[in-house]
Amino acid sequence: MSPAATIHLKVITPNRILCEADADEIALPGLDGQIGILPGHRPMVAALGEGLLTYRAAGEAEEHAIRGGYAEIRGDRVLVFTRV
């Protein structure tokens, strides 16, 4: 079975859904440095620090400043719970 070409990203804040997209790649500000995520990434939960959450979808780069939180990473999706 080949891995999916994209990974679904959903960023949730206490007040709203900040963004939702099918991304080619995602970068999150971890507590110990940047975490790079591609489709098919191994499952994990990561604590996040302050910094830029960036992702590329359909060749276009997007970024959002976040202030901590955590991410649940699966092979086909990433859920980020954060403050902005």
Mind explaining what this structure looks like?
Helices cover 0% and strands 69% of the residues. The protein has 84 residues and is mostly beta strands. It has a single domain, classed as ATP Synthase, domain 1, CATH 2.60.15.10. It has a seven-stranded mixed sheet, with no helix packed on it. The radius of gyration is 12 Å and the shape is globular. The termini are far apart.
The ordered string of helix (H) and strand (E) elements is EEEEEEE
Shape: globular
- Summed up, the helix count is 0
The CATH architecture comes to Sandwich
Protein topology:
Layout: E1 7-12, E2 17-23, E3 25-30, E4 33-37, E5 44-57, E6 60-73, E7 77-82
Parallel strand pairs: 1-7
Antiparallel strand pairs: 1-2, 3-4, 3-5, 5-6, 6-7
Essential attributes:
84 residues; mainly beta; ATP Synthase, domain 1; 7 strands; single chain
